[in-house]
Amino acid sequence: MDLANIKMCNKNTALLSLLFVSSLLSVRCGKSPGDTEPPTPPPAPFRVTATTLNNSNGTTFISVNPKNLRLSFAFNAPVDRATTASAFTLKDANAQSYTFDIGYDKSDSVVLITPSASIPFLSKFTSLVSANLRSKAGSILTTNVQIDFATSLDSSRKFPAISDDELLTKVQQQTFKYFWDFGHPVSGLARERSNGDNNLVTSGGSGFGILAIITGIERGFVTRAEGFARMQKIVAFLKNTAQTFHGAYPHWLNGTTGAVIPFSANDNGADLVETSYLIQGLLTARQYFTAGGAEATLRDDINVIWNRVEWSWFRKETAENQLYWHWSPDKTWQLNLPIRGWNECLITYVLAASSTSHGIPKTVYETGWARNGSMKNGKTFYGIQLPLGPDLGGPMFLSQYSFLGINPNGLSDVYADYAVQTKNHAQINFSYCVTNPKKFYGYSDSVWGLTASDIQGGYKASSPSDDAGFIAPTAALASFPYTPTESMKALKFFYYVLGDKLWKEYGFIDAFSLTNPWFASSFLAIDQGPIITMIENHRTGLLWNLFTSCPEVKTGMKNLGFTAPYL
């Protein structure tokens, strides 16, 4: 082999050796000759790691002092300050925006939100951080995060102090406006509610409204002539225009035409219980307007209405020893709801027994209403014995609606002492709210009263056994005859402390919650009526004295086995 070939061979051998070593290095490093460098891993998701309000951790807070308020949002990376202004909001429950100052901490990984000006008491707020927020590295916030909080009450007095007697009169006068100023212009009857169909009137609520008108005359809110003229309008409409079924009225009526407005699909005819509330009011008016002439004519018209109610027919055409709540021409007895005690319907049996045209015997009361004694309770709640009805008493209206006219003081039968029943029911309702087992914010000896009312998102028969945190002023205020001290304390708190939220054009709004601040925009006839009426019964016994002066009522109650000084 010549020298040139030897040199070439050596060069090739060296090259092969280099390639071999390079190959070994690649294998040892786990790479192949075609591999590239791996991509840089993405940054961790940008997210909130903690939320606090005034140094307390969480996302939901109640009873927050609105002064010196500070919220903080902690993130897992520094924020881009240029994006915070558009990412954070502070709004109330009505979506009204509030201005705030933004601060930073922990190398911009914590954002501090401080309201620029005072925010109101007893209001709900939401502070939200949205996906508009970016980290300094440019990452987008993974999810929206918010802090929800409700501010505490302001304990300052909202109105000048007046005497207790003046306050009672003021409440009665303002509540009276619901039935007088807001009464239906054609029929004079009470509209069901202030925030509904203004042509829809309620038969039972109108009975309460009649009691309110009598009170208004006696208190000088209107003259006797004005009140009498309104009663003439009401009675003429009920006698000549309003639709009836075997003499009984429907729950709801058209205030212009008198035609039934169905309460539900199968409740499109007579409602005997609502009719009894109406007749309770009418008989009270009959006993009030005692002069001759036009007042005598009014009394005669009321008697026509009263005597044509076929109470006994509502025993399913006299076939059963109990009364039934509903009947209609096309649904007949389909609802099939017997009226059984203990509840708000005692007045129905009293009037049925008092009717001289379509009366019921005592056995219907004993078998249907009292269920042969099964309506008794006798248990003790909060150290208070409850003679009748459901455990813990049920909603307060059970002890109020029938006793707008029936005086429970001194009244008894074989089943109960009704002064004890009504007072103990109210005391249990009060004691439950003071004890506050569900820890609702604001419940106290000044904020109490559970009964049927509007609540947030609907309507509910609230009671100690079914409490969602909504107080109805009517529960405590219509209990004045039973719990005068506790009711006055509630009245003063409702008016002086919560008055800026509760006190409106027709008195106190229907209901409220301090836990999750909410205030009804409504007034209901069946809630406003007991307030003015029972305050008057507490003060003078006016409506009790008038209703129980009816000779038919005296006879009917005696026949059922009741005893009382006024019978």
Q: Name the overall outline.
A: elongated
Mean pLDDT: 93
Under CATH, the homologous superfamily of the largest domain reads Glycoside hydrolase 144 (GH144)
At the first level of CATH, the class of the largest domain is Mainly Alpha
- Largest sheet properties: 5 strands, antiparallel
Beta strand %: 5-15%
What count of helical segments does DSSP give?
16
Q: Can you count the beta strands?
A: 22
Structural class: alpha+beta
Compose a concise summary of this entry.
By secondary structure, the chain is an alpha+beta fold.
Give your account of this protein's structure.
InterPro entries: Glycoamylase-like_cons_dom. Residues 338-551 form the Glycoamylase-like domain. This is Beta-glucosidase. The chain is of the alpha+beta class. It has 2 domains: 48-151, Immunoglobulin-like (Sandwich); 164-559, Glycosyltransferase (Alpha/alpha barrel). The protein is built from 16 helices and 22 strands. The strands form 8 sheets. A 5-stranded antiparallel sheet has the order 2-1-4-7-6, with no helix packed on it. A hairpin with a 4-residue loop joins strand 6 (100-105) and strand 7. The termini are far apart. Residues 1-31 have low confidence and may be disordered.
